[in-house]
Design goal:
With about 375 residues, this protein is α/β, with parallel strands linked by helices. The chain folds into two domains: about 5-130 and about 345-360, Rossmann fold, CATH 3.40.50; about 135-330, Rossmann fold, CATH 3.40.50. About 40% of the residues lie in helices and about 15% in strands. It is built from twelve helices and 14 strands. The strands form three sheets. Strands 2-1-3-4-5-6 form a six-stranded parallel beta sheet, with helices on both faces. Strands 10-9-7-11-12-14 form a six-stranded parallel beta sheet, sandwiched between helices. Strands 8-13 form a two-stranded antiparallel ribbon. Helix 1 crosses helix 12 and helix 9 (about 275-280) packs antiparallel against helix 10 (about 285-300). The longest helix has 18 residues, at about 175-190. It is globular and about 65 Å long.
């Protein structure tokens, strides 16, 4: 099958792109990527899922023109909208989506759903355990060598704190960020070694500032910025001896877990992002925004709507990881897992190959 008959849509989120490429590669079939650039106004806003390109910068994106593919693989709502638009132009095109489609789910021929998503079972649903994430060994080895002069000389054990960001229901506010770093330093004072902290794309600016202000003597901090050639993340994965990762960051949790290194998951405080955005619009002080959004989050979590209000339940994923011994709750003694998590890419790839085979038979 020519590669142009199987498209993989690539957006701006590295974790999403990595999962799509991992599944496409696991299928063993040739494919072509289509780079899609989202308009700045839609990077944070969540457009209603429908067949549309209104959120896409067409001039900056790669062309979406015939000949149309037999299969399109997408991930996330923004790329799902592009896939649905392609199907409008080419009704015979099959659609594969990673993660649940909150609308128009019946129009997708295959939906690959990791454990932490709550969806109704259906014929087009392929259930897997952990998300399709991981770091390629060759890339890890290369970054290990590149960052060895900076990281290999740090006192052992090297504890790496990977800070994520706020979700719809939980918050990495400045107070939480500072408290976590203080507790990590308590471990270091008892057991020796060194600390390296890095933020991520979703880390709030004031939380990054709080980490900088709370940084213990001798610890190092790298603040994330886009297209940074000196981002030490992969070097830290290679040289770190143990890791603390905030529970919101599925990508970082899974990538560390797959390396089989000691991992602790740090829970975040309940907080409501919708309330926080409304308070920011009122120009209230940031300290008020964080405090009031936490109060709202705690109230909502106690109601029947709490854990079931969204489509994701991070606690399900955390519980599986704890049960399998791939991580411990932050505060418990670090422990190396007996074996790393299995890769479920083969399960989803088998379903994807079946779709591709059906298209070959049709032609």
């Amino acid at each position: 099958m020519p590669s142009s008959r199987f498209w993989v849509l690539q957006g701006s989120k590295p974790g999403d792109n990595a999962q799509a490429l991992r599944l496409a590669s696991a299928s063993g079939e040739p494919f072509a990527t289509r780079r899609i650039v989202v308009k700045p106004a839609f990077e944070q806003a969540k457009p209603r899922i429908q067949a549309s390109l209104q959120h896409i910068d067409l001039e900056a994106s790669e062309p979406l023109i015939p000949p149309w593919p037999d299969v399109v693989l997408s991930i996330g709502r923004r790329m799902a909208m592009v896939a649905l638009w392609i199907k409008q132009q080419s009704p015979t095109t099959r659609l594969v989506q990673i993660g649940p489609a909150k609308r128009e789910a019946e129009k997708f021929d295959l939906i690959v759903v990791p454990l932490h998503y709550r969806v109704r079972e259906a014929a087009n649903i392929c259930r897997i355990g952990l998300p399709l994430l991981g770091v390629e060994p060759e890339r890890l080895a290369s970054e290990s060598e590149r960052f060895a002069p900076q990281l290999a000389k740090l006192p052992k054990p090297l504890t790496v704190f990977l800070a994520g960001g706020s979700t719809g229901s939980h918050s990495l506010d400045p107070e939480t960020a500072g408290d976590l770093l203080h507790k990590i330093d308590e471990f270091r004072q008892r057991e020796g070694g060194s600390i390296f902290v890095t933020t991520s794309r979703r880390t709030p600016t004031d939380s990054a500032d709080a980490l900088s202000q709370a940084l213990p003597p001798g610890a190092q901090l790298h603040c994330w910025k886009p297209d940074d050639p000196d981002n030490p993340y992969l070097g830290l994965l290679a040289h770190g001896d143990r890791f603390v990762v905030t529970g919101d960051s599925i990508s970082m949790l899974i990538e560390v877990a797959r390396l089989g290194k000691p991992l602790a998951i740090a829970s975040l405080r309940p907080a409501n992002r919708t309330v926080a955005m409304a308070l920011r619009a009122l120009k209230l002080p940031r300290s008020w925004v964080w405090a009031l959004s936490r109060i709202a989050g705690e109230i909502i979590e106690r109601t029947p709507l709490g854990s079931g209000a969204g489509s994701r339940d991070f606690s399900l994923l955390h519980e599986l990881i704890y049960e399998k011994g791939w991580a411990v709750p932050f505060g418990a003694p670090f422990a190396a897992p007996i074996h790393p998590p299995p890769d479920d890419a083969a399960i989803a790839a088998a379903r994807l190959r079946a779709l591709l085979a059906e298209d070959q038979r049709r032609t």
